[in-house]
Specification:
This protein has a domain of 91 residues: 2-Layer Sandwich (Alpha-Beta Plaits), CATH 3.30.70. The chain is 50% helix and 28% strand. It is built from 5 helices and 4 strands. A 4-stranded antiparallel sheet has the order 1-2-4-3. 11% of the residues are buried.
């Protein structure tokens, strides 16, 4: 209660100070501590993403330079080595395997284009783009068949477009590298 001169009493001053301190504490807790917590969480997310990126870069480097195990490390009768060797001795074998698709669904290869060839670790690396017309499911099956095939390939990218008149059909351009054993 104010005195006649308009000055506040001691208890009113204490009450105002207490309300101001509580208000400042609430403001500090919500704004500053919330920002610090968000910054700490963001830092943790960034660290996790950097770790994942490092793992993916290592995996990409491994896949880019991959080749089947040599007979010296697996024995000359190694089934896997022979399978890879037979499937990757000529570029014609690679094209034939890719053109067949996954063999289960209607799959039309419209175009196979060689983008670039170079030599890597005893292999001829050929960058290809393959244009196909198929259903979405058959495209997924084809990509899975490539990954499981004995071909030494790594898929670099896939562009998919739905055909305007068909809801279940699509066209796709698949960019991949294929590796053929140099003789």
């Amino acid at each position: 209660m104010a005195t006649k001169k308009g000055k506040l009493t001691k208890s009113e001053n204490i009450l105002i100070c207490a309300v101001a301190v509580v208000g400042f504490a609430i403001f500090y807790k919500t704004v500053f501590l919330g920002s610090r917590r968000a910054a700490a969480e963001l830092g943790q997310k960034i660290a996790a993403e950097e770790t994942e990126l490092a793992k993916q870069k290592a995996r990409l480097a491994e896949l880019s330079g991959r080749k089947p195990a040599s007979p010296a490390t697996t024995g000359s009768g190694s089934v896997n080595y022979e399978r890879y060797l037979k499937a990757n001795t000529s570029f014609g074998d690679v094209i034939g395997t890719l053109a067949r698709g996954n063999g289960k669904s209607p799959f039309q290869v419209d175009k196979i284009k060689i983008e670039k060839q170079d030599q890597v670790n005893g292999y001829t690396r050929t960058a290809l783009s393959i244009d196909v017309e198929t259903s979405f499911l058959a495209l997924g099956g084809f990509l899975e068949a490539i990954e499981r095939s004995p071909l030494l390939t790594d898929i670099q990218g896939v562009e998919i477009s739905r055909m305007s008149d068909e809801l279940r059909k699509c066209t796709a351009r698949i960019r991949l590298n294929s590796y053929v054993v140099r003789n």
